[in-house]
Amino acid sequence: ALHDFLAAVDDFDALPESARATVAAQRLRAITVRKVGVAYTELGDYADALPQLEEAIRTHQRLADADANDIRNVGDLYRAFADEACIYEFAADPALASAIGGDRRENLGHAVASLRQSLDKAEKLLAKTPDDLDRQAEKANIQARIAAILELLQPDAQDVVSETQALDKLRVDAAKPNASPHVLSLALTAWLQAEPATLRNSQYGLD
């Protein structure tokens, strides 16, 4: 997959200037660059993943600033910031080798910052379609991830009520007959990553 995504970026860069300058081409290239970053993340290559996500975010933000009415740009930023947060979350995991520098607390702090950006975009998406179950679950998932990291950073100060509420929201959404695989995935990952560990339900994935 990584090879294919890198080749696709090269194909975009080989287009004539007039074609590369179109909004559609810039957006698609940024989406592809984000996928390159995700592929590097999945390979554990965080040092190469981070610049890709940062580049994608810059492009998506520029497009969003140029056209505030195009909700697709908001969705692109939601995904890019969430993916950027994953890099820092993985880099902060003691069981995984980190190549992007910084200590565990520093990386967790960066993850929270990226997730807060993602949450802002998730809330804007939800405001457009408040009854969309996917959008509701995306917001709750980000809220749960933020709360879980804050629990790791400040275990004595963090109130787990907000995380419990987010997890309960995801549980309810996942149980609905019209829940998509996306909702189920968001719910499961949030519960498996919950902090403190007492919030995790070991049987959740089997229900």
Structural description of this entry:
Mean pLDDT is 90; it is low at 203-207. The chain is mainly alpha-helical. The protein has helices at residues 2-13, 17-20, 23-42, 46-66, 71-92, 104-128, 133-153, 161-174, 181-192. The chain is globular, with a radius of gyration of 18 Å.
List keywords for this structure.
single chain, mainly alpha
**DSSP summary: helix tally:** 9
Q: Using DSSP, what is the number of strands?
A: 0
User: Could you tell me the radius of gyration in angstroms?
Assistant: 18 Å
Which structural category fits the helices and strands? mainly alpha
| Main sheet attributes: strand count, strand direction, barrel closure | none
* Relative helix content: over 70%
Mean pLDDT: 90
Shape: globular
Uncertain runs: 203-207
How many angstroms separate the termini? 32 Å
Q: Beta-strand level of the residues, as a percent range?
A: under 5%
Helix-strand topology string: HHHHHHHHH
Give a short synopsis of this structure:
The chain is an all-alpha fold and 207 residues long.
SSE layout and pairing:
Layout: H1 2-13, H2 17-20, H3 23-42, H4 46-66, H5 71-92, H6 104-128, H7 133-153, H8 161-174, H9 181-192
Helix pairs in contact: 1-3, 3-4, 3-5, 4-5, 5-6, 6-7, 7-8, 7-9, 8-9
